[in-house]
Structures are given as structure tokens and as C-alpha cells.
Amino acid sequence: MHTIQIKEESYQEQKYLESVIADAISMAKKKVDAVEVAINKSTGINVSTRLGETENIEFNSDGVLGITVYQNHKKGNASTNDLSPKAIEQTINMAIEIMKYTSADPYSGLGDRSQMAFECPDLDLFHPSDFNVDQAIRQAAQAEDAALACAEISKSDGGHFNSHYGIRVYGNSEGMLQGYRASNHSLSCCVIGERHGQMERNYAYTASRDINALDSAQSIGLKAAKKTVAHLGAQQVATMKVPVLFSPEVATGLIGHLASAISGGAIYKKSSFLLDKVGELILPDWLTIKELPHILKGVGSAPFDSDGILTMNKDIITAGVLQTYLLSSYSAKKLSTADKPLKSTGNAGGIHNWRLQSSNGAADFASLVKMMDKGIIVTSLMGQGVNLVTGDYSRGANGFWVENGEIQYPINEFTIAGNLSDIYRNIVTIGSDIELKTNIQCGSILVEQMSIAGK
Questions:
Q1: Which of 22, 138, 167, 319 is the most buried (most CB within 10 A)?
Q2: Per residue in 386-395, pLDDT tens?
């Protein structure tokens, strides 16, 4: 099917889903104070290959209609994948029945009408692929073949190609009804290298809204092989305290813990080490983080959040100072006080394109290694040793030992530890090697010192 036909058919499907939601809202409004209805419809293909053989082919086209009703501060929700009027009416009645058994919550209900996305900006997120199964298999296999052709690559954990597009439609009884389409494409390869009986596994991937912006299959295979071979011959290090350089792939996770700690849910539950920190310095004063949800083709872009609230550009951190918590409509109401009313920040469901900016400039990766002089580069992390209540951080890691500003050899089986409050304040600089494949877009992060538990 050509992309023009896909675009036309998906447009018609979006309009159909909008009419279904409008009808559902009309039905429910006769029975409850307020209602919101949403559907995420996903269509696409997943293909995986291993050692020249096609291992898996999956087609999917699914979506569930979710209906949430509110009455006297009580809430009930139910869902259905049958979009017939009869099934929708049954689902509304089921949500009302569930609502009867819930406790009244003064903070439940729809968001602030003045913030709703009655107009929806076009963010150029929809670039569907007309790849057929044979082309998809060829992409995954070519990545594998390129990696397996490299010396010391002995086995493959597979090549994977995914191409999907989704339709998101949201409406509520305040009259807001909007939808948009978005595509996602990715290609990855994971291989195993072997040297003197020691084996290492690593991977590489590329992802984009636009399939034409993906890196080539051959380059992904070669990158996976290069990363794997670089870690062969890994040694262990002694227990010590040294500077740590987080590569971009893991640096995004370090900032992800910050996003989790300032979410409204964590704050009103008082389960965050950043409780009552708005207006305080929590990062170096040269570091700023902005949220930019309207970047065209952005991997984290969205015109509205899961509450139907219009997303907006905002400062998360300015010169190291925390500016806001990430609030849904519910958490904004929950955290509001008489003298300080709060509004949603448009973050129900997650964050949108965080960009880290340095007033000191940003160096490339090689320059950061030289700046560190002696320490550890972390390229992968294991385990879930992060306590967001206390900020205590302890993760298993792999990476490289650096001395005299140069990588000496790969290392494994060590743990990095510290407290996130200290780690964030002790960031020395960030790199210009920005990772763009996730909704947190930052380069390498150099931390002044962390505890290393080795042999």
C-alpha cells in the first residue's frame, strides 16, 4: 500500500474515531456530571531475524476505547474494543456501575477548561511507511549480516525492524474533541562477541518518526559490532572514588530519574527526594532544562496530554533552579492551596522533549575523556537500585577505565553509587554528543566523583 493511500485511509479512520467518541460523550452526558473518552489505535509490523532466518513477523491493528465518568466527585472507568453503539452504551453503564463503589475524591474530574486543547497544532508527526514484509525482513537481515561479517563477532541475538503508526483521539463533555496521527520506525541489532572464551553482548539502534531519517541497516550492524568488540577483554577495577562519565545512552536515564522525582504523583505522595524543592538550586547554575513539546517530528512531541490539556514550552530547570513540578490535572488540584492554586503543566502521561542546555558550552566526547583524565566511562547499567524517596543510587555497570585522558581498557562487574542530590549538584559538564532517540535529549554527563565498588 502506498503512503498516499495509507495517509488517506488513516485520515478517514481518525474522523470515524472522532465521531465514535462524540457519540459516546453524547450518550454519557445524559447520565453523569462529566465524561472523557479516549482511544489509541495502533497499526504496524514487527519483524525479527536471526542468523539469516526470519524468526518472527507480527502485524497489529488494535485499539481500546476508554471511557471515564464522574459524578459527585466519584470516578469510574471501563473500556471496550467493540465500537458499536450497543457495546459503547454497555461500557458507559459499566463505568457508572464501577463508579458507585468508589469513594468520593474532591480532586477528581476533568481538567481546567481554559487549558484544554480546543485547537490542536500540527507537529508533523505522521510519516507512515509503505514497507512490505520482504523489505522489513531485508532491513533486519542486512543489519545482522553487517555485524556478523566483523572479526570476533560470533553470534547474533537478532535484527529487529519495527514500523507503526497510531491515531490518538480524545474528547470530553466540555466540548473538547481532538485527534492526531503519529508514526514511529526503528531498526536494531544485537550481537555477541567472543575472545579467549570471554563473551560480550551489545546492540545499536536507530529510531525516527520518518523512516527516511533512519540510519542505514549496514551502519547499525557495524555500530553494534564495534560496541561489542570494544568491550571484549573486560577487566575488573578496585573499589575507589573517581569521576564518572555517563555516555549519552545512559545519561538520559540519569535525567529520567529527575523527571520521576518531580512528577506530581511522587510529590503529593511525599515519596520524592525533591519534595519542596521548587525555587531551589538542584543542578549546577550553568545548566538549564527546557521542555519543548512542539518540535516538529520530535520523538517526544505531542499537541496535548492524556487529560486533553494543551502542551506548552516551559522551563523545568533555569540556571540550576527547579522551576516547576510536572503536574497532571489531578495532581495540580491535589497540590493546590488557597494561597497558591496550581494548574496542570500538560504532563499527564509523561514528559515531552527535554533539552539540556549549558551556558558553559558543550565539549565533544573525546574532550570530556581528556577533561576527566582518570576515571570511569559508564556505557550500560543494570538493576533497579534507585530509591526516589531518599535519592540513594546504586547500579551495576559496564564501561571503560580512563587514565591520562585516554581509554585504557574495558571494565565490567562493578557498581556505581551515590545520592542523586549530590550527583546532580556535582555534574561538571555535559557533552555535545546529544542523544536524539528519546524524549530526554542530552549528551554525555561528567560527574565529579562517585563511589565505585569493584573487586
A1: 167
A2: 999 999 999 9
